[in-house]
Design a protein that fits this description.
The protein has 452 residues and is mainly alpha-helical. The protein has helices at residues 18-34, 52-65, 80-93, 103-113, 170-181, 196-208, 243-248, 253-261, 276-282, 297-310, 313-324, 330-336, 346-355, 361-367, 370-385, 391-405, 409-421, 429-450; strands at residues 5-8, 37-42, 71-75, 96-99, 128-131, 138-143, 147-152, 160-162, 185-189, 219-223, 226-227, 293-294. The protein has 18 helices and 12 strands.
Length: 452
Amino acid sequence: MDQLRVRFAPSPTGALHIGGARTALFNWLLARHSGGTLVLRIEDTDRERSTPENIEQILDALRWLELDWDEGPILQTARSERHQQALLALLRSGHAYRSNATAEDVKAFKQRHGAERGFRGADEGDGAVRLRVPDEGATVVHDVIRGDTRFEHVHLDDPVIARADGSVLYNFAVAIDDLDAGITHVVRGEDHLSNTPKQLLVLEAARAAGLHRDSPIPVYAHLPLLHGPDGKKLSKRHGAASVQELRDAGYLPEAVRNYLALLGWGAGDDETVLSTQELIERFTLERVSRNPARFDEVKLRWLNGLYIRKLSPQELAQRLEAFTERAGLLQAARISQEKIQTLADFLPLAGSLLDGPVEDAKARARWLDEDGRAALAETREELARMPGFDEAAVEQALAGVIARRAAKPREVYQPLRVALTGTTVSPGIFESVALLGREETLRRIDRALGGG
């Protein structure tokens, strides 16, 4: 087989959504698995919605996901001259014709011949360009995932492939671009399945007209739809909808790649945590399911938490420093690592250690009542006089307070936690005290006791 060539061809009409990201990933994995080529094409023919800002958003999302491409980005609009050449070739060879038929003409044709009969126009005038569909036979979409789908020509309209002014339409441009690029596999969402017979007809007509006569017809693979946990089509109501939203929510790109790869594809066992290298080694289209896949952000959060705990404290600190635009987070990262599932969880958990206590009236009322203040005062005395101030020493000191007071651990820990952070949420109490150090710990306790 010739070298595999795939393409990812987003329309830059907005941010790269999660379904598009999965399509990009599957193409990337297929190319990297086979040693093939990934072409990035930007289908920017929607002039009003395809903006430079949207193109940059897509490139930014792919870069964050660490999905590199081998050729491109190629703008579809930059190929308009080539599209005109191909259109002219089809007109000259008789595979396409100009037609003045209107929507009303098509409707009248269907009323005369039946709704199932494909419209055939007359070769006339200076109107839109239609592709001539053969009267007999069928176009068969050979799909690696879905099997064969047969489209009988008698039911297919002669599709419009260019407007009267010569500007080509989507299905024509896509087919010519795939042909020129030597694309061997088209991997995309199943919402494109209805476009495929039209594109195959363009490909066959173009080859018959002498354009890349020996080029292969691509193998197609239409990926299953993405649903939310409720089984309905994935949308904004299910949580993050775009790659940038996942990034801003504090997910790690390697965790997102792992999770997206499992949406509709199976590794052949029940393994969930797969490194990118393992995904590359195992990925094949034959293991993609034709059933809808469910995107569940709760599961993504869980998986992301596993990835965070696999990082070294130094690596986690670097990620957190980039995410929060702060410096010097190594110790705070280390003591938070077991408790956070995303980078965005870090500041709500540990921010009050770094920035000072927050104001949480409920926490103060619950834990700094008379008993809580008495426990806190005793804790202060113990922390002030102990010789060392590392985590083990803090744990030993608090254990002494608990024993003397015959208290439950939380009756000592929580008043101290509220004094240090203003709230009941923080990393482990021994680690938090050691991180702050003796001087700052005592200062915050004194402030809490003095403030009543």
